[in-house]
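ARCHIVE CARD
CATEGORY: sequence design from structure
SOURCE FIELD: tokenized fold
FIELD CONTENT:
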């Protein structure tokens, strides 16, 4: 048995193409160009790389984007003032503060300072609350990307047992909440396992759909899943590899080589959920721009 590859890169390109066409229409019909502001504090290489990829994606679909690069010693007060400027700037429809932030800055305070209507990361408590009770909201990008990948590959979730390994505010909690909603592309029976779970494999073996988002390299192995499971690997982990050009390689939370022989479908790392996350960021930003009526 060889698993179907859930190609996030391919699906994300389809989504970007759709957004590009809709953006052209929005510009022509309403004179609105979706605008996204990135705020990058400090010189974390991974954060710089992520913002660069997101900027490139904006260019590809015809968005306007601006990146504010701030030194690591930037004060919390200055950052809050900058966010407020973007909150009232009509050409900006989405605000993204790249996490993590330096230790002297309160991440929760920064997230809450963003106008929830421009919170394209989907982290603001108002958007989290709307998500929980099933109201329309700006949804966190990685969970939204997971759901969209399942939908576009025609994988049924209704009545299926989804096991989420991980309980972060960015992936685990929101994806669990999204998939248990009484909605299309959801309506699943959801279990969350995490670092406090005594025997994770007891739960993973029951999964029809397994979402691995615990941040530990290749922790999910073939003996932990049942035949025919659909596996979504959210992990991005660096492991030492002297043979690799950079001295390391990127792996997921799932041992791909072994699990792919048991699963019916699996998302790869890289090329799975990563590209879908950026596609959903663009989708959220377009959604805000499209609803703008005060121009």
């Amino acid at each position: 048995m060889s698993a179907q590859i859930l190609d996030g890169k391919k699906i994300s390109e389809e989504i970007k193409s759709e957004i590009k066409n809709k953006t052209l229409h929005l510009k022509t019909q309403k004179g609105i160009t979706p605008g996204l502001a990135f705020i990058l504090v400090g010189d974390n290489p991974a954060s710089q790389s992520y913002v660069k990829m997101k900027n490139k994606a904006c260019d590809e679909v015809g968005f306007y984007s601006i990146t504010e690069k701030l030194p690591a010693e930037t004060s919390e007060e200055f950052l809050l003032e900058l966010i407020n400027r973007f909150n009232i700037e009509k050409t900006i429809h989405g605000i993204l503060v790249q996490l993590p932030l330096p230790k002297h800055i309160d991440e929760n305070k920064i997230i809450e300072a963003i106008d929830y209507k421009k919170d394209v990361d989907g982290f603001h408590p108002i958007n989290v609350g709307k998500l929980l009770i099933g109201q329309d909201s700006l949804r966190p990008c990685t969970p939204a990307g997971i759901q969209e990948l399942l939908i576009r590959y025609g994988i049924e979730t209704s009545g299926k047992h989804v096991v989420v390994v991980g309980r972060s505010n960015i992936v685990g909690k929101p994806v669990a909440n999204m998939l248990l909603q009484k909605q299309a592309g959801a309506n699943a029976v959801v279990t969350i396992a995490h670092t406090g779970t005594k025997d994770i494999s007891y739960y993973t073996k029951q999964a029809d759909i397994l979402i691995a988002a615990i941040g530990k390299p290749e922790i999910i192995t073939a003996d932990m899943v049942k035949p025919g499971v659909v596996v979504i690997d959210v992990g991005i982990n660096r492991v030492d590899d002297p043979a690799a050009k950079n001295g390391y390689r990127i792996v997921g939370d799932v041992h791909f080589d072994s699990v792919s022989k048991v699963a019916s479908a699996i998302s790869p790392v890289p090329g799975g959920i990563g590209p879908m996350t950026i596609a959903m960021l663009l989708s959220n930003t377009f959604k805000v721009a499209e609803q703008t009526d005060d121009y």
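CARD ANNOTATION: The mean pLDDT is 96. The two ends are 55 Å apart (CA to CA).
SHELF: design records, drawer C
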